[in-house]
């Protein structure tokens, strides 16, 4: 399917006023309805629109126009462009927020910061269509209306859909374990948590000095205590004999 010319209604106005082409030829070339072209000829449609010359704009050659005027069954074709303009790839920008709902964005930002702190600023911008400076002001409580803000769900305000919110929350939760692993605050696995502690041997250089003595050491201490008691008792017995 061929593309319509630049400014199709203005081109149709010029063709109706300056050529003898049929309404069907003009309608097919400008991608309009024949009745709409007839309305242009009657002055009922496109009133006040200035005609655009397709020849001077490089959209139609004079030879092509003369062939179409001589043959009512001829289909007009756009002239090939001498300079090929690359197509501009449109990048998806921030979400557009209607003017009537822009005053509710600070409340929605406060709700997201309190209920989903794992969300990044870029994700909040995609959901609500705000700016980083506004998010930072609400987070730091330096916003001009910080005292009057109330956290409100952005879905209930109509600023985003529940599907988009769940998607961003799931993405943030998916990226969160990697960040915790880098910080060294990951939880132990079940096998590591339930594994028995390694047995300490006497060859360990840094043995725990606060551990209680073994039974053998306790027995030796008891014997030494009784020996000291016997030594004390013997001098007392000798004194009684005297």
Could you walk me through the main structural features you see in this protein, from its secondary elements to its overall organization?
- The chain has 242 residues and is mainly alpha-helical.
- It has eleven helices and no strands.
- 50% of the residues lie in helices and 0% in strands.
- It is elongated, with a radius of gyration of 45 Å.
- The N and C termini lie far apart (138 Å).
- The mean pLDDT is 78.
- It holds the Pfam family TrcR.
- It comes from Bosea spartocytisi.
- InterPro entries: TrcR.
- Residues 192-217 are annotated as: Disordered.
Largest sheet: none
Number of strands: 0
How would you describe the shape? Answer: elongated
Q: What is the distance, rounded to the nearest whole angstrom, between the alpha carbons of the first and last residues?
A: 138 Å
What structural class should be given to the helix and strand makeup? mainly alpha
- Spell the H/E element sequence: HHHHHHHHHHH
The number of helical elements comes to 11
Portion in helices = 40-55%
- Overall mean pLDDT stands at 78
Give unreliable regions as ranges.
Answer: none
How much of the sequence lies in strands comes to: under 5%
The Rg value, from CA coordinates, equals 45 Å
């Amino acid at each position: 399917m061929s593309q319509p010319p630049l400014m199709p209604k203005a081109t149709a106005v010029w063709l109706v006023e300056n050529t003898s082409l049929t309404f069907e030829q003009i309608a097919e070339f400008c991608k309009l309805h024949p009745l709409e072209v007839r309305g242009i000829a009657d002055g009922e449609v496109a009133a006040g629109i200035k005609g655009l010359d397709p020849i001077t704009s490089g959209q139609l050659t004079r030879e092509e126009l003369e062939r179409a005027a001589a043959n009512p069954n001829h289909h007009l074709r756009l002239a090939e462009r001498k300079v090929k303009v690359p197509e501009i790839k449109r990048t998806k920008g921030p979400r557009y927020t209607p003017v009537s709902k822009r005053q509710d964005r600070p409340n929605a930002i406060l709700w997201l910061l309190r209920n989903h702190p794992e969300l990044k600023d870029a994700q909040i911008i995609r959901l609500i269509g705000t700016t980083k400076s506004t998010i930072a002001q609400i987070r730091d409580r330096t916003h001009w209306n910080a005292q009057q803000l109330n956290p409100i769900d952005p879905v209930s305000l109509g600023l985003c859909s529940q599907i988009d919110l769940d998607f961003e929350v799931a993405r943030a939760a998916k990226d969160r374990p990697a960040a915790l692993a880098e910080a060294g605050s990951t939880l132990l696995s079940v096998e590591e948590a339930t594994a028995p502690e390694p047995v300490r041997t006497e060859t360990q250089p840094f043995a725990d000095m606060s551990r209680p003595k073994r039974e053998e050491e306790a027995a030796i201490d008891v014997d030494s205590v009784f020996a000291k008691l016997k030594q004390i008792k013997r001098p007392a017995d000798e004194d009684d004999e005297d």
